[in-house]
Structures are given as C-alpha cells and as structure tokens.
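Have a close read of this protein, sequence plus structure tokens, and explain what the tokens say about the fold. Thanks in advance:
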Amino acid sequence: MKRLLLLLFIPILSFSQISYNDVMSTNSVDGFKKVVIENGYEFDSLDDDGWLTYGFNIVKDSTGSKSSQWSSYNTKDDRFTLSFGRRTLLGNFLGTDDDNSENPYDLIVKDIKEKCKYYKIISYEGIDYVSYGCSESTYKGKIGFVVSEGSGLIRHFPTTE
C-alpha cells in the first residue's frame, strides 16, 4: 500500500521547473519558447499587445484559463515576465501554507541575489520591483522581482536607449 501511494505522488513531485540559468538565457522569443516548452508549459494565448503567454498545467473553464505558474513574452519589445504560485506542491494539494522556500520563484531569487549586483527599485504598473544587473545574462537590461498578491513575479526590464 505504501508503495502504491509513493507511486501516485512521484508524478506530482517530479516536475521540471524554470531555473536561474533558464532566466539568464532568455533573450529572444525563440529562447523563451524553448525554456517554457522544455519545462512543461503549454501555450495559452497571443494578445493584440504582443504578449505570448504560456501556463503550467492550465485548467480552462467558462471564466478563462487558470494556472499557478504563468510565463509571458512580449514579442514587440523583447520583455518577459514569470509568475509563480509560492506554495509547495504538497501545500497546494493539502490547501495549507507551508514552507515555500523550495518553490521555483524563491530558488531563482536566491540565485539572483547571490550572483547579480543590486541596481535599484523599478516601479512598473504600480508595483515596486527590486532589480539587479546580472553579468551572466544574455538579455539586455535588468531583472526584477517582487511578491505581489501571493505570487512571485520575475520581470525583465529591457535597456532603454
């Protein structure tokens, strides 16, 4: 019986997740698609403003699409945004708030703070992001992050010339 329960949880616990290296390598729409598709995300939409959106385990109903993890890339100006629910898989399953330090958002942010240099606070659409410059990045600009309404957001801020 214990083996059966373990086998049921292995698929839930062994999913691929976006990493710091994936974020640092995202510098084009093709690179973005490579990262999200290889990490199990599926296409959701392309809107009139050029935002290409993918979600992880999307559930569609009459009110639209739902996912705990979204990734978007703006095809007009090469910006990207990653949004992560901050509960662990077990916390999502049980509906509890548990230690979330091992979720993709917190792991990526930990690496950004260790490997990159603080730049400044960037305000975007009324939200203040802590931004960093990363010498390992292949994109042009800064990377910012914040927790807003329970989700961890990682956003690329392109260099404006």
Q: What stands out?
A: Confidence is low (pLDDT under 50) at residues 1-14. The longest strand covers residues 117-124. Residues 2-158 form one domain.
